[in-house]
Amino acid sequence: MERARARAGWFLLAPAFLHSIVFIAIPAVTVVVLSFTDTKVIGGGSWIGLSNYTELLDDPLFKKAVGHTVLYTIAVVPVAMAIAILVAIGLNQNIRGRALFRTLFYIPVVTSTVAVASVWLWIYNPSSGLGNEVLSFLGLSRSGWLTDPDSALPALMAIGIWQGLGAKMVLYLAALSNVSPELVEAARLDGANRWQVFWNVTWPALAPAHFFVLVTSIASSFQVFDLVFVTTNGGPANATNVLAFDIFLNAFQRLDTGYAAAETVVMLLIVGAFVYIGRLTQRDRKEV
Fold this sequence. Notes:
Layout: H1 2-34, H2 51-57, H3 60-91, H4 98-110, H5 113-123, H6 130-137, H7 152-176, H8 181-189, H9 194-205, H10 207-222, H11 226-231, H12 243-253, H13 257-281
């Protein structure tokens, strides 16, 4: 019986293992190998060792792309998580129209990025967009938004926060449902105010959700591509050129597969470092 169960378990796991090997393990190993070659999309390549990586260190466009991606991640991830927690707590209350509000917040998640970008391109239109109309109504000077190098990346950050808010909200709503009502009631009976209940009861109970949302948000921020491709194409003046977009340019426009592979490896290492730092910050306070 035990052997039959083991065989059944391996049989059920086989598709997932096969998927992981074919679509994750093999491509990952291939990218690492290619990063040590001068392979082009058309034609072969030869082993060049660390030349691609040393070239990256002297590439100003790569450095700029790394800086933009890191800045985008640092700005978008914590802000989106904080807003998602507040929205989830608000929509976890017994309020009228709660289901409708949850749906409205989640719609951007299931909407294609092309459609989202098209709407925001209208909002950010310098001449007739809603964004500048609001600024004019408030008595503020009009902005170039995506056409101004100083405001293009922050404008994309706003879109990223808005589009990813619904997914984080749903995860936090699920986590809030697991918060023990008995602990909340006990804290209130002990005289704790709302902030004390949140910080000492609700926040620790959300720890697993924090880590999951953090990891997925970091990975998503480093993979931002389609939003940049549709709205700014990396401009103006490379002000929104991020790592994923720079990898795309090197791989499919400059046809330098080896160099793009080296960029990908570096990006994965940076993501790993961010996740590790995030893991340290999300540790239980008793362990710190």
